[in-house]
Amino acid sequence: MDNAERLFEFPHRHLLGIEGLTPVEITALLDHSETYVEQNRQTNKKKSVLSGRTIINLFYEDSTRTRTSFELAGKRLGGDVINMSVSTSSVKKGETLIDTAMTLNAMHPDVLVVRHPDSGSVKLLSEKVNCAVINGGDGAHEHPTQALLDALTIRRRIGHIQGLRIAICGDILHSRVARSNIHLLTTMGARVRLIAPKTLIPTDVERMGVEVFNDMKAGLEDCDIVMMLRLQKERMNGNYLPSVREYFHFFGLDYGKLSVANPNALIMHPGPMNRGVEIDSEVADDFGRSAIHEQVEMGVAVRMAVLEILTANLDQPAPRNL
């Protein structure tokens, strides 16, 4: 498949979420991401496909992996990358999101990568600018490139996604990663299980086509993928857990709980990890089964693919919004 065909199969101006994407569109993004994996392992990692393009990373929340990954992706494609420090910007002086959008729009960037603590804020911003917008995580809503890199990791390790039994464990309630992964994995034909205390499971989440378990061993039985999530204490207003020690006892991934999963079950975590809280260090460092570092590597490839496709779509007539 050449680039023209690949771009045609993802006819969107923005990447605001996974919800609503088709299997063909998701596959197009993953296939193009594959082309960058080997390139990123070469001595010369740079291309010039984004020469003359400007990418602005606008992060209202702290991030190490996502922002650095997007910065590397943009620079390896030859683009001009600007990281806006919200802590020292006009935002801290009371400027609204819309005013910021209009100010940045006047500078004619090609892509805005935005992380914001409020769900829906990135979509609102996308409606006020002329450039492509990528959701780098909005509140507890979505984190689409994380789900794509997770899917790429799974596909490269196992060869397929359809039919896999995948457990997502931990703080589902506050996790945009969980939501994006649920949308992507169910769309691609996986059987998704959510495992968490009742206090960390969203209401009516079964409507998303998942199974819900409140017991770790019951939920992990015969699973092919075990995807752990960190406790997002910064989003917790109230008592969701008795104690961190008790949480690890019942829901932290260790070899005892993992014993009921598929013997070759892949261990994943979007990071940052809280060792001894949601995952045991010995399990996290099991390089035969853990794909945690591979997820980070796949993140750069996925973001390179997304940046290239969306900037190419800027030149196409009237692409659809999503």
Summarize the structure in short:
Helices cover 38% and strands 14% of the residues. With 322 residues, it is of the alpha/beta class. The longest helix has 23 residues, at 292-314.
Mind explaining what this structure looks like?
- The protein is α/β, with parallel strands linked by helices.
- The chain has 12 helices and 9 strands.
- It has helices at 3-8, 23-39, 65-76, 97-105, 121-126, 144-158, 176-187, 216-220, 244-251, 255-258, 281-284, 292-314, and strands spanning 54-59, 80-85, 111-116, 132-138, 165-169, 191-195, 211-213, 225-228, 266-268.
- It has a 5-stranded parallel sheet. A 4-stranded parallel sheet has the order 2-1-3-4.
- Strand 1 (54-59), helix 3 (65-76) and strand 2 (80-85) form a beta-alpha-beta unit.
- Helix 6 packs across helix 12.
- The longest helix is centred in the last third of the chain and has 23 residues, at 292-314.
